Amino acid sequence: MAVPLVGLTGGLGAGKSTALAELASLGAAVLSADAVVHELYETETVRDAVRERFGGAVLDGERVDRAALATRVFENEDDRVWLEQFLWPLVKQRAEQFYAEACRREQPPRAAVIEAPLLFEAGGDAPYTATIAVVADDALRASRIAARDQAQLARREERQLPQPEKARRATYTVVNDGSVAELRDQLSDVLEKICR
Fold first, then answer.
1. In the structure, what pLDDT confidence band is assigned to residue 140 with cuts at 50, 70 and 90?
2. CB–CB of 37/87 below 8 Å?
3. What angle do CA 123, 142, 68 make, to 5 degrees?
4. All domains of the chain, ordered by start, with CATH?
5. CA distance linking residue 145 with residue 17, whole number of Å
C-alpha cells in the first residue's frame, strides 16, 4: 500500500509547526515547506538569482537576508510573483524527493506530511491523499504571534485565505484552541482515518 501523502496548512499562529511535530511523534514523516525555503536561501544558486534580481540590498554578506527580502517582495507584486515562481518549483521538487524517500523506507511511515502555509492559495493540493487545516481562535492566534513583526505578518496574512475557507477546502480540520495533548488527540484521530 502506498504511503498516504498529506498536506498540512493553516493560518498564521494557528499552530501548524506544533501540529507537524505532533504528527511526527505519531509516526508520520514530515517536511516543512518553509524550512525547505530557508534551506534554499542558503544555496549558491538561489542566492545568486536573488542577488541578480534584487541587488545587494537583500543580502547580509554572502547570505540572503530573509527579512529584507520579505519586505521587498511584499511591497512589490512583480517581485513577489517572480520569487514565488522561482522558489515554488524548487520546493515542489524537494517535496517529491521527500515523498519518494518516505515510500522507499524499509519500514514506511504511517503518512508523509508536508506543511505548506499557502497550500490552497498556490493550487498545490491536487497530489495529496488528504489535507488538514489547523485553525484557532483569532485572539489566540494574535497572542501567539504578538512578538513577531506585525507589519510583515499583516502582509503575509493578506496572501492567505481566511481560516474558514481553509477549513472548507481541507479534508480534515483540527481546532488548536486547547493544549498540545488535545491537538495530538485530534491529529491521532485524523491520522487513523487517513491510514485506513
1. confident
2. yes
3. 65
4. 5-34+90-194 (3.40.50.300)
5. 13
